[in-house]
Structures are given as structure tokens and as C-alpha cells.
Write a sequence for this structure.
């Protein structure tokens, strides 16, 4: 069966020691850490490591230094929870932002996505997640009460909830609505445009803008 | 036209200063450097930076240290051109490898791909590219003569050319064939399986194995 045999799976080639790591333990460790980054799998992590290794002085060391520097410089904004090298962050410190308008998001990635879309001229509040009965996340595990404290300080006209359209996002919105409404502050949620079950962080700018403009009172 | 207007492009929202960078100059620089890695675009670089920034001590600093350590430790093998923290590299130093069989590749990525596929039990020789009339790459820009020197030292029974199926790969194979044949050493090239215009580095293990087994004398 020459035809079939040409397509048959070849017998395994006997090799001295089978598969092994490339480049020594330092390279192995670098590839393993790179492969944990979102967007990089084991194969692209190897390609990235190889690109960096080919030019250690001009590619690898600058990236390593940028990482160490960012880890040293960046902190959490004590007002809104954003990550920035300044505290308060550049958004909270900007006098041109409308301080009466607060968009509430789950994470810093959501805040960055809204800023990139340039669809909000007010401030933000990062909760650090959503309430989750299954995940055991209660109100004290998130920055919910600091948000209420910001509102009680006065000057806030409207709170816009930009949370994911998930069960936990809805539960968090409900918890906040119950407590913010009695304070006499308008509260709304972002409108149609956020896909059910989706994360804000990965949406395109147009959808993010539509969701913000299409917000509805709750 | 309420229906149409609901789908019309919205007017641009007036904003104090338009788009700006997130997280300060340190984060901006980190994202810019990450976005240059193969497999990461601007968006996934931001997500990667954010993941690292959320856990600077456990994620960012270990990766920065691994990069600095790899840049310090890794060098080019003086025998075959592989990148490794040892010189000679682990492959050249392995007494179980067949020293009479040399696979010639363009780059270290090709060598690593063949090793991962575990289809070769001999040694390697990394040329560092291919001859290119258009690109101005001549014989002295590659490690072609060191390969001839390795052969002249004796002990080599066969040289297998595992170069890309490109015009430049073929020109390089021709240059080597003309010089290796007179030395009385068998010379072959990897067989069918390498897609025309494709790079070895990204091939699957089965195709790499088939190409190596299906090599033909030149």
C-alpha cells in the first residue's frame, strides 16, 4: 500500500533523550514567565524570548528596566483606584475634568478603555471587581463604601454605573443603587451596547461611546 | 427619521483634551516596549501591562529579573551559533548527539523548532540568515565559512540543509553545495513539507519531521 503508507503516521524517531528545553534554565524561565502574559501562548512566548535574546542590549534590558521602573513608580490612586505614577492620578488631578460626574467601573482596564475611547469628561471610581455570592466577594472586599464616602462629600451630580452586563455586575449595580438613590444623586447605568456576558475592557471605542450616551436611569 | 438617526454616527463628544496616555510615562513606555514583541499588538500590550501592574511584586519584578538574568547569561555558542547560557551549548556539549550529522539552519528559532520536534539526533549550524543579493547580504555576513571549517576538521559524514524554501534560501543552499560537495561529504536538503515561501520556525512538529526524513541529495 504505497499510497496509504505515504500518509501513515511515521514511527517515532529514536532520540538520545527526547524533548528538552532550549537555551538553558535562564531562557526556560523567561519563556515560562512570558507565556503567562495575556495574548502570548507558549509558542509566541518563545518567539518573543528569541527576539529579545537576539538583541539583549537594545531590546531585552530596556524592557526589563521599563518593567522595574513601572513596578517602582506606579501606585493606586487614593481617590478613584486608577493605576498611575502620580497620586492623585492624572485624571483626578486634571482641573478640566467635570468633578460632578463619576463613572463607576469594575477594574482599571475598564477605566483605560473608556479613556482611550475619549467618551467621558468626568471622573472615575474603580471598584476592584463585582459582588459575587458564588465567589465569596462581599461589599467590604470592594471599594464600594469609599464611593459612597466620595458622594457624601458633596459636589457629585450623577453616578454612571459602567459595570459588565453579568449577574454579578447587576448585583453590584443593585447594591449601589439602593444606597446612592437616598442620597439625592442621579444614578444611571450605561446603555445598550455592552454585550451580555462581555467585559468592557475589550470593547471597541464606538460601542463604549454608545453605551455611555445610551445610559438609562435606574 | 428616528430609525435612521438611532444608527447614525454620533457627533464627537467635546472633551477637555482628547486622547491621552494612561498611567503616566512609566506605563506608557512599558506598553510601547511590550507592543514591539511578536504576537502582542497595542491592545494586548496594554492588557499585559495592566496584568503586570496589578501584581508588581509577584508578576512584574520576577519577569524583569528573568529578562535581565537571561540577557546576562545567554551567549552565542562558538561552535554552532545557538543561543545558550553555556558555551559550547547544551547540544554541542551532549556526548549522546551524533557529531557526524550537521543540520544547517538560518536562525536560532529554526534550531529550537527542530529540537522541540525532536526529529534530529545530530548537531546544528546556525548561519545567521541567508545570502541576499537584494538585501546586500554576502557570504562574509553569514557564518558560512565557519561551517566549511567545521567540515574540514573532519568527522562530518552528512550536512543537511534545513533552509527556508525561498529564493534566498535556495541561493544559500547552492553556495554551500558548490563548496561542500568537493570535500567528499554527503549533502542533502530537507524534503517536501516546507511550504514555499514559509519559515521553518513556525511549522508544526509533524511537518518538520517529514521534511527531515524526506531529505534529498543535491
Amino acid at each position: 500500500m504505497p499510497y496509504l503508507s505515504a500518509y501513515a503516521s511515521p514511527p517515532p524517531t529514536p532520540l538520545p533523550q527526547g524533548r528538552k528545553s532550549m537555551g538553558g534554565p535562564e531562557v526556560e524561565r523567561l519563556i515560562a514567565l512570558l507565556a503567562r502574559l495575556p495574548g502570548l501562548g507558549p509558542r509566541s512566548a518563545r518567539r518573543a524570548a528569541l527576539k529579545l535574546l537576539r538583541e539583549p542590549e537594545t531590546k531585552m534590558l530596556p524592557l526589563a528596566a521599563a518593567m522595574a521602573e513601572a513596578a517602582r513608580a506606579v501606585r493606586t490612586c487614593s481617590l478613584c483606584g486608577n493605576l498611575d505614577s502620580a497620586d492623585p492620578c492624572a485624571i483626578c488631578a486634571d482641573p478640566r475634568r467635570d468633578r460632578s460626574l463619576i463613572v463607576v467601573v469594575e477594574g482599571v482596564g475598564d477605566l483605560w478603555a473608556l479613556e482611550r475611547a475619549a467618551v467621558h469628561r468626568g471622573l472615575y471610581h474603580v471598584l476592584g471587581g463585582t459582588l459575587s455570592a458564588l465567589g465569596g466577594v462581599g461589599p467590604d472586599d470592594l471599594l464600594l463604601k469609599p464611593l459612597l464616602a466620595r458622594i457624601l462629600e458633596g459636589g457629585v451630580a450623577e453616578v454612571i454605573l459602567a459595570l459588565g452586563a453579568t449577574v454579578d455586575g447587576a448585583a453590584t449595580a443593585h447594591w449601589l443603587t439602593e444606597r446612592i438613590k437616598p442620597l439625592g444623586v442621579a444614578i444611571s447605568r450605561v446603555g445598550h451596547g455592552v454585550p451580555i456576558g462581555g467585559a468592557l475592557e475589550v470593547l471597541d471605542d464606538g460601542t463604549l461611546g454608545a453605551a455611555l450616551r445610551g445610559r438609562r436611569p435606574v
User: Anything to note?
Assistant: The first strand of chain A starts at residue 75 and ends at 76.
